[in-house]
Design a protein that fits this description.
By secondary structure, this protein is α+β, with helices and mostly antiparallel strands. Helix content is 28%, strand content 20%. It contains three helices and four strands; from the N terminus they run ββαββαα. The chain has helices spanning 49-64, 99-110, 132-147, and strands spanning 17-26, 29-37, 73-78, 84-90. It has a four-stranded antiparallel β-sheet with strand order 1-2-4-3, with helices on one face. The protein is globular and about 40 Å long. The mean pLDDT is 96.
């Protein structure tokens, strides 16, 4: 079997950033998959499931209610390796195009107060596994260390 594209990226050279993972077409409609890489793979500790789960609930809620993007969001969810998230948008985008959107999302998560949307047995299959304080920590860290002064090498996968 051939390796899938994401396994051909050199994770040793990768740093936290915002990358286009792939571009696909559904019929004639383009779909862009983004790699929202929040930790330095294989060097920093990975995120725990509870904080990623909280970020998923908050991020998905924010994105699906965003005035400009709500009809373009196909998916927002965690990577299995727990180093970041995937975001799939209808349309053909470059990484730099959505930096402002992710800044808004991270601010929303970092400043969030109250009950996490969907945090009930009726709404979620694992509602007890949510960590809002750590979700806020990771959102703020990604915003300040990566998004606010993002460099070209954080927008394009390493060779």
């Amino acid at each position: 079997m051939e390796k899938i594209t994401s396994f051909t990226i050199d994770h040793i050279k990768m740093i936290p950033g915002l990358y286009v993972s792939r571009r696909d077409f559904v019929g004639e409609t383009p779909v862009t998959t983004f790699d929202i890489r929040m930790t330095n793979p294989n060097e920093e500790p990975v995120m725990h499931t509870a904080e990623m789960h909280a970020m998923e609930h908050l991020g998905a809620t924010f994105l699906r209610n965003h005035n400009a993007y709500q009809d373009k969001v196909l998916y927002f969810g965690p990577m299995g390796c727990r180093t970041g998230f995937y975001l799939l948008l209808i349309g053909d985008y470059d990484s730099k195009d959505i930096v402002p959107l992710l800044e808004e999302m991270c601010l929303f998560i970092a400043d969030f107060e109250g009950e996490i949307p969907g945090a009930s047995a009726k709404d979620c299959g694992n509602y007890l596994d949510l960590d809002l304080p750590m979700a806020k920590y990771w959102a703020r860290k990604y915003l300040t260390r990566t998004l606010r002064d993002i460099k070209e090498e954080q927008l394009v996968y390493p060779d």
